[in-house]
Amino acid sequence: MTNEELCLRAIDAMDLAYVPYSGYHVGAALLCEDGTVYTGCNIENASYTPTVCAERTAFFKAVSEGKRRFTRIAVAGGKDGQIVGAFPPCGVCRQVMSEFCEDSFEILVIRSKTPLLYDVFTLNDLLPLRFSPSYLK
Ligand code: THU
After folding, report:
1. Distance between CA atoms of 96 and 105, rounded to whole angstroms?
2. Which three-class secondary structure state does DSSP give residue 1?
3. What are phi and psi of 84, to 5 degrees?
4. Which of 13, 98, 101, 129 has the smallest C-beta neighbourhood within 10 Å, fewest atoms?
5. Going by CA atoms, what residue is nearest to atom 13 of ligand 1?
6. What pTM does this model have?
7. How far is the CA of 137 from the centre of ligand 1 (A)?
8. 59 neighbors 27 (Cβ within 8 angstroms)
9. Per-residue model confidence (pLDDT) at position 12
10. Residues 130 and 105 sit within 8 Å (Cβ to Cβ)
11. Is residue 76 packed enough to be buried (19+ CB in 10 Å), middle (13-18) or exposed (0-12)?
C-alpha cells in the first residue's frame, strides 16, 4: 500500500461521514503493520459531545478487530466534502494514537485531492512529550 493509495482510501471515506451539524466531512485510512487497512469517518450526534472523529473511528474499528500495531494513517477533511487545505487530527485523536503507536508512527495530512498533495508528520511531531502507556508501568 503506497502513501498515495492510503490517501485515496481516506478521501473515499469522507463520503460516508455522518455530519448533519457541522457539514465537515472527514475520512481516515489506517494502515496496520500486517498490511490491512481500516477506514473511518466522523459520526456526529445531536447531543454534540458524543461525536467521534474519523481517526478514532478507524482506530477503534481496527483495535476491536484485534489489531494493535500500526504504521501510518492518512486524514482528509473539508466542508461539504471539499478538500481546500489540511484538516489535521485533533488532540484527542492524537492521544488515542499515542496509546498504540510509536513516536515514528506517520500521519499523512492531505491538503489537496487533485493534484494529490499531503504532508507527512510523525506522532512525535504532532504530540511531543506525550503521556503514553510507558508512564503507567
Ligand atoms: N473531526 C474529525 O473527524 N477529525 C479531527 O481530527 C478533527 C475534527 C470532525 C469532528 C466533527 O464532526 C467535525 O470534524 C468538525 O469538528
Report:
1. 12
2. coil
3. -120, 10
4. 129
5. 24
6. 0.97
7. 32
8. no
9. 98
10. no
11. buried
- The answer to whether residue 65 scores a pLDDT higher than 90 is yes
Q: Tens of pLDDT along 100-129?
A: 999 999 999 999 999 999 999 999 999 999
**Cβ-proximal residues to 115 (8 Å cutoff; 6+ apart), any chain:** none
Say whether the peptide bond before residue 115 is cis (omega within 30 degrees of 0): yes
Which residue minimizes the CA distance to atom 6 of ligand 1? 89
Catalytic-residue membership of 55: yes
Q: Is the CB of 39 under 6 A from ligand 1?
A: no
Among 15, 24, 60, say which to mutate for ligand 1: greatest number of ligand atoms within 8 Å of CB.
Answer: 24
- Nearest Cα residue to 17 out of 112, 108, 91, 81: 81
* The residue to which cell 513516536 is assigned: 103
Q: Say how far apart CA 96 and CA 28 lie, in whole Å.
A: 14
Return the C-alpha cell found at 35.
Answer: 498490511
Ligand 1 centroid to residue 101 C-alpha, Å = 21
